[in-house]
Amino acid sequence: MVSRVIPVDPFDLVLFGATGDLAKRKILPGLFHRFEVGQMPPEARIIGSARTEMDAEAFRQSTKDAIEEFTPDSPNRAKTLAAFLERLDYVTVDVSSDQGWQDLAQVLRPDVVRAFYLSVGPSLFADIAGRLHECGLATPDSRIVVEKPFGRDLASARALNEGLRACFEEHQIYRIDHYLGKETVQNLMALRFANSLFEPLWNATHVDHVQITVAESIGIDGRGAYYDQSGAMRDMVQNHLVQLLCLTAMEPPSKFTPNAVRDEKVKVIEALDPVEPADIARGQYRADTGGDSYRDHVGNSSSSTESFIAMKVSVANWRWSGTPFYLRTGKRLRARESEIAVVFRDPPHTIFPNVGRLRGNVLVIRLQPDEGITLRTTIKDPGPGGLRLSEVSLDMSFADALGADVRQQDAYERLVMDVIRGDQTLFMRGDEVEAAWAWVDPIIRNWEETGDQPAAYDPGSSGPEEALMLMHRDGRRWRHIGG
Ligand code: NAP
């Protein structure tokens, strides 16, 4: 099956931080892919910007190098890449000073969609928004895109929202959570709301519990200073895992519009019960043979920041009362694996002799590494000689179901085109981010006040013993990480 490509309107996309890591690894390659498939109109332009002095030609060369490094080769790539690079321009701007803004004003066109992508550190977000406003570069229809992290607590997120809203309307602000751009995450909404099979079962009567796992096999890798100030709770739970929880738990929106979807997500966050310390397991990876510990990686021998967290969360509403959501995420775990597993209740009675306890169905939405959906079912073992049962999975990998040539879009390329289209459905609204911080803040404050220390765990494991106990004491088990 060939996916349909709907071209977007002509645009000027200003990429602040164009010389940075994210721009090179994700944003520019993503834009190139959209160009390759024909979604970008001939009038589209990408204007890179940073403090580094260079001309447009040098920026084209560095973008060419990045795309060659970070995208797979294809027979026509050289030709397509040459055409893509013609769309690129570059303007040197130090966003903390007056330098460069007038040069930027000169290259922008009045009659096309205007988007400003802030791929820079969050301390620069409000400055850039202010300067865009003062210099008259932000038109009423301009869009501004901001990267994570969006604050480090409720107060800083509020201040950031105020800074952005002083210059832009909420409908112009696109707060990125790249998990929302993942194909499978959106498929979760399609699965729930485009099929009649699942929704009647999607509640506490039929669902025993939900497990959301985002496991990484890598450690901190060069981000030590940032990560040690942040930890798994701020870096992963407040944004990505809460978003996955929202999409799993939310009520059906009345329509698929940005505010209808985001209204339902906010209701889920507001329904989250405060989490008791006993329902949280924090961990920090220790050294293994030949490998450094978390503390070595961040260069802080007394760090009490968590590189792992597991927690039991209750959504206090009619649909989910009595059905816990278990969340877990961590670094240096056994495998890189992310999934949402909806574990249905066991059949209430078995008519089959000698088969033991029948286990409930499990619907698994896999986010990575191989995006797809699996439903664990129980069937009869083939052959004569009595009735024996086996568990098998109905496995729907996207590549098999939709044709082997379907390339999975990277989350960034989808999201950046949504910005140009003016579709905020997959972006976090200001009140949503604040609600998530309001839920997370007291948990972190409690750790700080009590001097809570994370438990050590072995690299390559599935986290500390305490996380296993979180499930065991409820008579449940985590799904295995790593196949
Ligand atoms: P980075 O590699 O440090 O790049 C920062 C960029 O900002 C560089 O292009 C730098 O260019 C520019 N910059 C810094 N100060 C500036 C100033 N005063 N005026 C103009 N430009 C300035 O950072 P990154 O990893 O790309 O991350 C960018 C943003 O994305 C951050 O908010 C980060 O949290 C977020 N993010 C990154 C990743 C990732 O995988 N990298 C993932 C998720 C979110 P010059 O030095 O030339 O000015």
From TrEMBL:
Q: Name one Pfam family in it.
A: G6PD_C
Q: Which reaction does it catalyse?
A: D-glucose 6-phosphate + NADP(+) = 6-phospho-D-glucono-1,5-lactone + NADPH + H(+)
Residues annotated for substrate binding in this entry: 178, 182, 216, 235, 331
Which biological pathway?
Carbohydrate degradation; pentose phosphate pathway; D-ribulose 5-phosphate from D-glucose 6-phosphate (oxidative stage): step 1/3
Ranges annotated as spanning the membrane: none
Q: What is this protein called?
A: Glucose-6-phosphate 1-dehydrogenase
Q: Give the protein family.
A: Belongs to the glucose-6-phosphate dehydrogenase family.
Q: Which residues form the Glucose-6-phosphate dehydrogenase C-terminal domain?
A: 189-479
Q: What are the boundaries of the signal sequence?
A: none
Q: What does this protein do?
A: Catalyzes the oxidation of glucose 6-phosphate to 6-phosphogluconolactone.
Q: What is its EC number?
A: 1.1.1.49
Record-annotated Glucose-6-phosphate dehydrogenase NAD-binding domain positions = 14-187
Please name the PANTHER family in this protein's record.
Answer: GLUCOSE-6-PHOSPHATE 1-DEHYDROGENASE, GLUCOSE-6-PHOSPHATE 1-DEHYDROGENASE G6PD
Keyword Transmembrane listed? The answer is no
Q: Which residues form the active site?
A: 240 (proton acceptor)
The yes or no answer to whether the keyword Cell membrane is present is no
Q: Which keywords does this chain's UniProt record carry?
A: Carbohydrate metabolism, Glucose metabolism, NADP, Oxidoreductase
Q: Which gene encodes it?
A: zwf
**Residues that bind NADP(+):** 17-24, 51, 94-95, 148
Database matches in NCBIfam families: zwf
